[in-house]
Structures are given as C-alpha cells and as structure tokens.
UniProtKB/TrEMBL annotation:
Family membership noted in the UniProt record: Belongs to the major facilitator superfamily. Metabolite:H+ Symporter (MHS) family (TC 2.A.1.6) family.
PROSITE patterns associated with the record: MFS, SUGAR_TRANSPORT_1, SUGAR_TRANSPORT_2
Organism of this sequence: Streptomyces bingchenggensis (strain BCW-1)
Descriptive protein name: Putative proline/betaine transporter
GO molecular function, one term: symporter activity
Length: 446
C-alpha cells in the first residue's frame, strides 16, 4: 500500500531515530547504573559480611526486576497496540523516572533494617515493568518509521541509545570514582546517578509528548479493533512468539555477560581495580555502540540471518576461551582487547534483534508480539545471567558459567539456521501476504 505523507507531516528518518530512541537512553541509564553501582550500595541495604553474598542479594533483586518484564511486556505491549506507540513510549519513561527516584531516596539497612531493601525491590519491579514495555514500543516505532530498505540501519539505533545510556552511567561512575573517596561513594555517592536519571526522564517525557505516531500504525488503526494487542491474537502467531524466545536466549545471556556483569567480573575475578574495570567497560562499550549502525546497515544488504548465524557460531566457540583469558588478565590493554572481541561477536545479535522480531508480526499485534516473548526470554536468561555467574563463582566453579553462556548460544544458533529471512517482510501485511522485493521497493518512505 502506498503512503504519501503531506509535506508538513512528513516523517524524517532522523526525527524517528531521535524520538524513538532518546527515551531508551534514559531507560537504560537507570537500568544499567543499578548494576554498575551495585558494588557501592550493596552494603547499604544488607548486613555487613561477605562481599560476594551482598552482591548476590543485589543481583537477586536485579533478577527479580527481569521477572516483571513479562508483565510489562504484556500490559504495555497491549497498550502500544491499542493506544499507539507514542503513548506507550511516554508511559514507560514516566515509570522509569519514578523508579529511579525511589532508589535515590531509599533508606539504608542501618536506618530501617530490611525495609530499605524492600523499597529497592519495589523500584526494581517498576523498572522491570517499564523496560518490559519500552523495548517493544521502541523497536516497533523505529521499525515502522523507517524506509523498507533501511529498517536494519534505523532500528539498530535502539542499541546505540541503550549503549549510550550505559556509557553515560559508566562515565558518571568513573568521574565519581576519581572525585570522591571510596567511603563517600559507599555512603551517599551511589545515589547521585539515580537522581540524575529521574531528572533526565522528566526531560524525555516532554520530548516524547511531541512525537508523531507512525503511519503504519495509523493505517491499521481502524482494522481489527477488538483484536489489537490481545493474547488471543498473539496465540494465532505462537510460532513467531516461540521463535522470539528461542532466538533471544543466546543473545541476551551474552549481552548481559559482557555489559552489566563485565565490570564486576574484571574486578572480582581478574583482580583489576574498580576504576580500571569501569574504564575497560566504558571503552569497549563505546566501540560497541559505533558498530551497531554499521552492522544494521549490513543486514539491509545481505539479510538478517547471516549476522545472527555469525553471532551464534562466534559466541558458542569463543565464550570459553575469552572468559578464561579475561580471568587471568592483569593489564588494562589485555582486558580491553578481549572485551572488544566479545562485543564484536555480540553485535551480530544486538544490531538487528529488534527489527527481526518486529518483522515477524503484523501491525495489530506487533508490539505485544515483540514485548511479551522477548521479556519472557530476558526474565529466564538475561536477568539471571549475573546471578548465575555469581552463583558459579561462589560455588568455586566459575568456569561452569562460561559453558552455560556457550550452551545458550548453541541453542539459539539452531534457530538462526532454520528460521526464515525477514528482511523483505512488509510491515503493512501479515506474513502470509508478504509482497515481492520489487513491491517492497515501491513503498513510499514514512
């Protein structure tokens, strides 16, 4: 179907990129600083004792937040399909602002006992609810608002913005480590990033209120009114939903291993100082961020499956040697090179996983179809990655975690090898009615 926007209302790709991804930056800043600053606030909410035990407690609450993501994926995915992508994006950043503020003002164990940990838990549940909907709303918005032949490139900015949020969080951590004493960071300095996140979310709320809805969604607005965003309709696409879970499994475990867990791993296992470990993560993530659009654009030329397969093979074969080498490195340069090698492999998944999932579903159930299965996979595998890693370490068998990550990648690789290519899928038709490539090219960009 041709789409010819009027001049005043024409969507430009960069407006869609900025509008759809800026909230991701704040969402993932707040999400990531929890993991990055956990080494400083773990002792604030739990009794003093074994450091690894305290980290296990905070990692457990981190994982619980992931188990709210399926709830957020269901509620906010349904909301995005029924009320629009713009409305969902605005709501998710509001929830994230509230959760960041709760953590910033949470009382400590010395002040109120375990009540402080309870406030932390509530905040993490709100974060999980928010991120569960944010991923799908952002993925569908960026995918629907881009040209057919550039969907991989445009949607890759979801991970650019997510990584930028992580970089800002890590950058703030590095600045605070160099300007505050260790005692001050443990005492009150860890609250600073959460205050910053709450304020930044208020700015993004205003920006997102001025977004335009995608024309793909508006075209389908009058169709299947009662079916939009319903579980019953999602079950009609249960094969695609199961595919999302399976293709996410290996990617989410690898992603959280080399991003949120990496700083702790370099500090607790490799023996690098906290400041050096943070700087390694910052540099590696910066390069990783720059790789996303390049890989996304490549997928527009050669297809999505080749990149996913490359990730699956690389993660399956390289995880054990990379993690083993990282555990023995004692230099900044060595840790950085190994971290970069791992993140280059992970790029094959992160750069295109959002667009692949969005291309699997029709418009009226796209947000829910992306959100709920992806959130389930993240709850089971991504959110537990750090906890599983620390459990193996605490049990004296840390290398078992390396094989766990490799095994998850192997399962996803089977899916990548057998799934259909989604690059030429029409977003305005159901999968069974997909047009030819020439028909795709004839569509007017939104």
């Amino acid at each position: 179907m041709s789409v010819t926007p009027s001049a005043p209302q024409a969507r430009t790709p960069w407006r869609a990129v900025i509008g759809g991804s800026i909230g991701n930056l704040v969402e993932w800043f707040d999400w990531f600083v929890y993991a990055s600053f956990a080494t400083y606030f773990a002792s604030a909410f739990f009794p003093k004792g074994n450091d690894t035990a305290q980290l296990l407690n905070t990692a457990g609450i981190f994982a619980v937040g992931f188990f709210m993501r399926p709830v957020g994926g269901w509620l906010l995915g349904r909301f995005a399909d029924r009320r629009g992508r713009k409305a969902a994006l605005t709501l998710t950043v509001t929830l994230m602002s509230a959760s960041a503020l709760l953590i910033a003002i949470a009382p400590t164990y010395d002040q109120v006992g375990y009540f402080g940990a309870g406030v932390l838990l509530v905040a993490r549940l709100l974060q999980g609810l928010s991120v569960g909907g944010e991923y799908a709303a952002s993925a569908t918005y960026l995918t629907e608002a881009s040209q057919p032949g550039r969907r991989g490139f445009v949607s890759s900015f979801q991970y650019v913005s997510m990584t930028a949020g992580q970089l800002i969080g890590l950058g703030l951590l590095i600045v605070l480590q160099r300007t505050m004493s260790d005692d001050s960071l443990h005492s009150y300095g860890w609250r600073i990033p959460f205050i910053f996140g709450a304020l930044a979310a208020a700015v993004v709320f205003w920006l997102r209120r001025n977004l335009l809805e995608t024309e793909v969604y508006e075209e389908a607005g009058a169709q299947r009114e009662t079916e939009r965003g319903s579980i019953a309709e999602l079950l009609r696409h249960r094969k695609e939903a199961a595919l999302v879970i399976a293709l996410t499994m290996g990617g989410t475990v690898a992603y959280y291993t080399y991003t949120t867990y990496l700083t702790k791993y370099l500090s607790n296992t490799a023996g690098l100082s906290k400041s050096d470990a943070s700087l390694v993560s910052f540099c590696a993530l910066f390069v990783f961020m720059l790789l996303q659009p390049l890989a996304g654009a490549l997928s527009d030329r050669i297809g999505r499956r080749p990149l996913l397969i490359t990730f699956g093979v690389g993660s399956m074969l390289a995880t054990v040697p990379i993690m083993t080498a990282l555990s023995h490195t004692d230099s900044f340069g060595g840790a950085l090179l190994l971290s970069l090698a791992a993140l280059v492999v992970v790029t094959g998944y992160t750069s295109i996983n959002a667009v692949v999932k969005a291309e699997l579903f029709p418009t009226h159930v796209r947000a829910l179809g992306v959100a709920l299965p992806y959130a389930i996979a993240n709850a089971l595998f991504g959110g537990t990655a750090e906890y599983v890693a620390l459990w193996f370490k605490n049990s004296g068998a840390e290398s078992g975690f390396y094989w766990y990550v490799s095994g998850c990648a192997a399962v996803s690789l089977i899916v990548y090898l057998t799934m259909r290519e989604t690059r030429d899928t029409s977003l305005t038709k159901a999968p069974a009615d997909e047009p030819t490539t020439s028909e795709q090219a004839a569509r007017t960009p939104v």
